[in-house]
Amino acid sequence: MRVRVLIVDDDFRVAAVHAAVAGAVPGCEVIAQATTLAQAREALPRSDLVVADEYLPDGSGTELVGAGDASVLLVSAADDADTVRRALVRGAIGYIVKPFEMRVLTERITAYVRFRQSLAAEGRLLQVEIDAQLGMLRPRLDPGAPAKGRSAVTASAVADLLRDSGRPHTVMAVADAIGISRATARRYLADLVAAGEVELLLRYGTAGRPQHSYIWSR
User: Fold this and answer.
1) Which residues are CB-neighbours of 25 under 8 A, at least 6 positions away?
2) Burial code of 21-46, b = ≥16 C-beta within 10 A, e = fewer?
3) Is 181 helix (H, G, I), strand (E, B) or coil?
4) CA separation for the pair 40, 20 (Å, rounded)
5) How far, CA to CA in Å, does 192 sit from each of 58, 67, 126?
6) 151 Cβ contact list (under 8 Å, min separation 6)
7) Are β-strands 211-216 and 198-203 bridged in parallel, bridged antiparallel, or unpaired?
8) Side-chain half-sphere exposure of 83, counting CA atoms within 13 A
9) How many alpha carbons fall within 13 Å on the CB side of residue 118?
């Protein structure tokens, strides 16, 4: 699947730069650029992700949050607490304050593409898998640090197993190889998926729920 991206900024030059960044992300297609809220609303039904400025000549980017099925990432010079709070409470998936390095926008859009692809599979999801998918949208300040309550030794062992093998592993295979419980393996694998280091795969058989496996993605 391809993620359809709408770029919204009152400055057409900034919109063009953001469109170039989004268009370079694998799995993304920039379907429109808008400089007003009215233009953005016209393209909104065709969009999966909106990268929008807060300040628009006829309104605000926050007004696009919840206006359709598209997710909205705010990119704005507005850094006051009320504006940020309003955007996040309404349901914006993120907020980037201008000015910023373009790699930040690339990272956020890339994370969103992974998030959407992980949700494309059919079937039921375990809570740990839902948590991992939500974690894809949250930037980690220190990707190498284990989550709270995790062992750095175990985290390293799980990562090394997947990195060195170069092939997918099920939760059971990881648990057996390292000597930990399946529940523990799921938690560490979820951390790696959230960090973008491991990709969650689903394989469908002839019956029953799909089998989940994990492969190193870096």
Assistant:
1) 106, 109, 110, 113
2) bbeebeebebbbbbbebebbbebbee
3) coil
4) 18
5) 42, 33, 16
6) none
7) antiparallel
8) 16
9) 27
Residues 6+ apart with CB under 8 A from 208: none
41-88: pLDDT as tens digits:
999 999 999 999 999 999 999 999 989 889 999 998 888 888 889 999
Q: Quick one: which of 134, 122, 114 has its CA closest to 25?
A: 114
Evaluate if pTM is beyond 0.70.
no
191 CB-contact burial (10 Å; exposed 0-12 / middle 13-18 / buried 19+): buried
- H or E segment at 107? helix 102-118
The encoded tokens of residue 126 equal 């375990």
